[in-house]
Amino acid sequence: MNKPKILYIQDAMCIWCYAFGRVLDDMQVKYGNEFDFVTYSAGMVVGESIVEIGKMKTFFDEAIPKVEPLS
Question: Is the pTM of the predicted complex or chain greater than 0.90?
């Protein structure tokens, strides 16, 4: 029998998406028997705003502890 799916659409350049990762992990542990979880990566940042993810490391390292409690 197919389980209902929970779709998570995220962007690798989105700090809120990373911060929500722990919530999603907890949901999968708690509801993994009831739902299938599917993640899609989308493109929020486009054009000249695109940077290599490695160049965002320092920003993410500093921002994630601030954003996680809020997400």
Answer: no
Q: Provide the 3-class DSSP secondary structure of residue 63.
A: helix
In whole angstroms, give the CA distance from residue 24 to residue 12: 15
The residues near 17 (Cβ < 8 Å, ≥ 6 apart) are: 10, 11
CA distances from 9 to 1, 55, 61 (A): 24, 23, 22
Run of H or E residues at 67: helix 57-67
Centre a 10 Å sphere on the Cβ of residue 48 and count the other Cβ atoms it contains: 6
Q: 4-63: per-residue pLDDT in tens?
A: 999 999 887 788 888 888 889 999 999 999 999 999 988 777 788 778 878 888 888 888
Q: Could you report how far apart the first and last alpha carbons of the chain are, in Å?
A: 33
